[in-house]
Design brief:
The protein is α+β, with helices and mostly antiparallel strands and about 120 residues long. The chain is built from one helix and four strands, in the order αββββ. It has a four-stranded antiparallel sheet with strand order 1-2-3-4.
């Protein structure tokens, strides 16, 4: 006998269709993952901008006072940026600054945190 039987042909088409359907189901997951990765990259950039701004200030500037500095004036697009300053951590004459950039998409809420230390100049 030569060629394929109708059963072999139908079976091959079914196997091919299952493979194609599985591959197309991965596309939305891949797109969501790529969007999340872009958002993380942008958020990290916004956090780094704030680090550079705070590092350029005088050690005793009010923007570096201990406590949480709210996000209201720090909103950028879909991002909310706030930072928290803790005095004398990890040692005297140092400030720990934690910048948090958060955002919400249709799928989930996410955030990026960046931690830095700013030292006072002792005389």
């Amino acid at each position: 006998m030569r060629g394929f039987t109708i059963i072999e042909l139908v079976l091959a088409i079914v196997i091919l269709a299952v493979g194609v359907l599985a591959a197309t189901n991965l596309l939305p997951v891949t797109a969501r993952s790529a969007q999340h990765d872009r958002m993380v990259t942008q958020a990290a950039g916004y956090a780094q901008q704030k680090v550079e701004e705070l590092r350029s200030l005088d050690f005793y500037d009010s923007a570096l006072s201990q406590g949480t500095h709210p996000a209201s004036p720090e909103s950028i697009d879909v991002f909310q940026r706030e930072y928290q300053v803790t005095d004398n951590l990890p040692m005297t004459d140092m400030k720990q600054v934690v910048i948090t950039v958060s955002w919400r998409t249709a799928f989930r809420a996410s955030n990026v945190q960046l931690k830095t230390y700013i030292a006072g100049i002792t005389k």
